[in-house]
């Protein structure tokens, strides 16, 4: 079984189409650069800093769309309203309002982000030209990737099970009269009243940047530097595999 961070990154990328921030609460900004190792972005700095001094304009999509992902056939949510009888063997009382989450396998994911805003670098072509120039001058590491798109959530909940049978019961401290409780709603002030076999939990936290996209410079042995916005699956030849390691893209299926 892959480590939790690798499986999380792979599953989120496959289902939502973005790279996943790990740890999910790590703050990121447009223009941050670094390397992706086993699906995890390791930040080195920002291209607007003194080292590179590259400026850019930001494009903002304010559509406030929700994003969510639940591991298939592995996540079950039960809403418990105030005044209703709780399920058997529950830490919630009759008076409590809350949400019960049960997981059917190890590393199963619940991802819910509310009112997301997409921030992106307006002119990635100009940025790409600047990166290629730096690369050709020996000033840019071919392993570096730049965050060009960032998803910011007004509030988000991310829970990952540690084992099959993982369970967490969240109690609401506010708005307990609401019939449809939202597990990512920060106004509910949800907090764990019981948990078992839970590996990672971020409960209705505000201002997260849980998803992002990147671009970088790809230089083959017999071609000029080009900008890559996503990895290309390696050919089944030792030569090409060596070329990919040379440009510093590790674990291509992960990013």
What is the strand and helix layout of this fold?
Layout: H1 4-16, E1 19-20, E2 32-37, E3 40-46, E4 58-70, E5 75-80, E6 98-103, E7 109-121, H2 124-136, E8 145-161, E9 167-171, E10 191-196, E11 198-218, E12 226-228, H3 238-247
Largest sheet: 8 strands, antiparallel
Mean pLDDT: 87
Q: How would you describe the oligomerization state of the chains in this entry?
A: single chain
What structural category arises from helix and sheet content?
Answer: mainly beta
- The helix tally amounts to 3
SSE succession: HEEEEEEEHEEEEEH
* DSSP strand count: 12
Instruction: Indicate how many domains the architecture comprises.
Output: 1
Low-confidence stretches are 231-255
- Radius of gyration over all CA atoms, rounded: 21 Å
Strand content: 35-45%
* Shape estimate: elongated
Helical content class:
10-25%
Distance between the termini: 18 Å
Defining traits:
255 residues; mainly beta; 4-stranded antiparallel β-sheet; 3 helices; 12 strands; disordered C terminus
Describe, in plain words, how this protein is organized in 3D.
- This protein is mostly beta strands.
- The longest helix is centred in the N-terminal third of the chain and has 13 residues, at 4-16.
- It has one domain (4-254).
- It is elongated.
- It is built from three helices and twelve strands, in the order H-E-E-E-E-E-E-E-H-E-E-E-E-E-H.
- Strands 1, 2, 3, 4, 7, 8, 11 and 12 form an eight-stranded antiparallel β-sheet that branches.
- The protein has helices at residues 4-16, 124-136, 238-247, and strands at 19-20, 32-37, 40-46, 58-70, 75-80, 98-103, 109-121, 145-161, 167-171, 191-196, 198-218, 226-228.
- The two termini are 18 Å apart.
